[in-house]
Specification:
The chain is of the alpha+beta class. The chain has seven helices and five strands; from the N terminus they run αααααββββαβα.
Length: 248
């Protein structure tokens, strides 16, 4: 996907998140994030948006932690979130493609591409969280476009879970296959006592296979719905391991 496409998704999904927060109220419980209310979700996402924008706009080369969101609620908090989201969209839209700044995943060819991709997915996943506060079944999220969902699965598997901090480990080597039925994308995730190693393609006999539409994989692998049901075949213990240990 192109940087401009990520920014369009970020703009759309950030607006959806804010609209959902206004509809359900900032005191509503977020089912996908136990212990959180919508206010916590807005503070977190708004702080991350400002954090990301700072790296790009100020050309920061060293990591700094995100600041805490303000202890406000209601319309004031939604307005604060909207301001940070709009500023991030502006920064990513105006930044030169060769801007140099700090990043934390080796999954994009440029820093600008990294931050556009990361914040598009950060915001989309948290839009799902906001929707879970409506109280409906967790599989009833609003749509995620298939190509973008495939991209988010790829970022998760080849980026986040390639890092040493991934807790998805097995005593004996196992192979988890992820297959997007609608886009044709396939990932072979090699599990062991080391960090997961993901290879693109259908490589080797899988111990457990998950086959579903990309949007379902997106929600399930990011732990917004359980990784279970008819989409999962083979060694179900690997799916349970994912549910229990893969949260980012």
């Amino acid at each position: 996907m192109e940087i401009t496409e990520y920014v369009k998704v970020l703009e759309l999904e950030g607006g959806r998140l804010a609209e959902t927060a206004e509809q359900v109220g900032t005191d509503a419980a977020v089912a996908t994030c136990p212990g959180w209310r919508v206010a916590d979700l807005l503070r977190h996402t708004g702080a991350v948006h400002r954090w990301a924008a700072g790296f790009v706009e100020e050309r920061r080369l060293d990591p700094v932690p995100p600041a805490e969101g303000p202890e406000i609620g209601g319309a004031e908090l939604v307005g604060w979130y909207r301001e940070g989201h709009a500023d991030l969209v502006r920064v990513l839209s105006e930044a030169p493609e060769d801007v140099q700044c700090w990043t934390f995943l080796p999954t994009a060819p440029t820093p600008l591409g990294f931050w556009a991709r990361r914040q598009a997915h950060e915001t989309t996943v948290h839009r799902l969280d906001a929707e879970s506060a409506r109280g409906f079944q967790l599989h009833e999220f609003g749509p995620v476009e298939a190509e973008f969902a495939e991209d988010g699965v790829d970022e998760l598997l080849t980026g986040f879970h390639a890092r040493g901090r991934s807790r998805v480990r097995t005593e004996d080597p196992k192979l988890l296959r992820i297959r997007a039925a609608d886009t044709g994308a396939v990932w072979s995730v090699h599990l062991s006592h080391e960090p997961p190693r993901t290879v693109i393609g259908d490589l080797g006999a899988a111990d457990c296979e998950v086959t579903a539409e990309a949007a379902w994989l997106y929600a399930a692998l990011w732990n917004r719905i359980p990784l279970e049901g008819p989409a999962v075949t083979g060694d179900l213990a690997l799916a349970r391991l994912w549910n229990e240990s893969s949260r980012i």
